[in-house]
Write a structure and sequence with these properties.
The protein is an alpha/beta fold and about 400 residues long. The chain has 19 helices and 5 strands. The protein folds into 3 domains: about 130 residues, P-loop containing nucleotide triphosphate hydrolases (Rossmann fold), CATH 3.40.50; about 100 residues, Zinc Finger, Delta Prime, domain 3 (Up-down Bundle); about 55 residues, no CATH class. Helix 10 crosses helix 12, helix 12 runs antiparallel to helix 13 and helix 16 crosses helix 17. About 40% of the residues are buried.
Amino acid sequence: MVKVLEMLWTQKHKPRKLAEVAGNEPAKEEVKKWALDWERNKVQKPLLLWGPTGIGKTALVEALALEVGWDLIETNASDLRDAETIQKLYGLSSASKGLFGEKRLILIDEIDSAFDRGEIPAITKILKESGQPVIIIANDVWSQKLAGLRTSCKLIEMKGVNARTVTDVLQKIAVKEKNSECGFAAEIAKNNKGDLRGAINDLQACVVGAVEGNVVPSARDREESVFEAVRHVLKTMIYGEAVKAADNLDEDLETFIKWLEENIPAEYEKSEEIAEAFDWLSRGDVFRGRIYRRQYYDLLLYVRALSLAGVALSKKETYRKFTPYKFPSIIRELGASKKNRGLLDSIASKVGSKTHVSKKDAKEVALPFMPLSKAAKEYYGLDDEETAFIKELFKS
């Protein structure tokens, strides 16, 4: 299982100085000038970096901290939900210097996820009274809830990385990973439309999990039967085949995992194999929760590895038998009602528009872990019927 737990290349090959950050030259110049002014003890307004996911906003901030030698204090806006955490961050931001005299760079990531009424004013207080440089990251800076923050910050837009630059980055990574013959970097770059992080994840999936004849993610050759995909996972002993088993399905990963849950006991005959398979599914479940709470969609690579390859490699050997795979009971109940299918699509559309992901991705990683508080219902625009439906569908 070594490959299942391999380090994400987005972390392994992340930039360590501003010059290594791909694309967005104007934004890099502005951030560098801002940092130099701080180094000259000229207090500056906080920065609000904004733009689509996966383009290198967080990577730029981390590279900046390394380059200028600042202590990086990184937090996620969704973590600032209690007075103690906010007060601790306020104390760090109001101090004039770090432990060894260096400046502290306060990074508040994913400000879009802060939708409770009490969070934005608390963050605004940190901005106004901070004695340290502060950078905030957002996807949609023009969201109404961020109106107060926009006036307190200097806005810097970051854009999607152009395909040629993404291709160059992928080729350099491929060489470092001893795969200099990578022939599909340009196609991956084109498929990801400016999302560098997604492109690097796709490159890793192609190279690390490859079997004969690499297939570029998102290039669907044919629509495959879900029964056939289940058979691939439960019969194969090859990591790459298991990870790619669901690539040609219209089903989202969350739904496909329910198929595996239903059929693992029918395919595997040894209790320890069944236990290990469900253990890997539970580990993947943890990562899906992290993806939703923090919107770290690069973790999807781990979810697929843990949930699909983990299940496949839990058995000692392939069972040479015919197994009549069953339709998952929860999906059978859902499919029996056209109204329910419509409800699910409606909810996924609302959640997807707020989290900037597709409807399919919303079903896959967001809905199973979505908080159902009053604030969440208001934020996503869900009615009582939709909320009750989610509770019933994903109850444990």
